Amino acid sequence: MSDSSAKTAESRQRELRGRHRHIEVRDLSVPSGWLTVVSNFVESVNDVLPVTSSPFPRVVVDAKEKYGSLRLNVQGTYDLSKDDALETLVDLHEDDAEATCMACGGPASEKASVGFTRRCDRAECAR
Q: pTM score, two decimals?
């Protein structure tokens, strides 16, 4: 990850932490184009979590890129294995990343995606 994309990921991490006190975003090791997908995922997780007055994080979200795919991991202080809604959200947002350019966040193109990368048709993204 380049210095500028690392700074972008760090600022997005701080922003998400500030908005959702009960969701800890531990790691955002994703290309900058996928930051919006991860941000949308965290917002969706916030929407399905049971309401609580606890000041402590109840869910930890890790996001990383592996072999050209987004991997989302959710761990929590309550039994997440029984929460089908969270599993559905993970699948939905991982699928969204498959159709998203890793560089700019635009729609990925099959012909521009090579190997383990998801890219759009724009010349600056196709590198």
A: 0.80
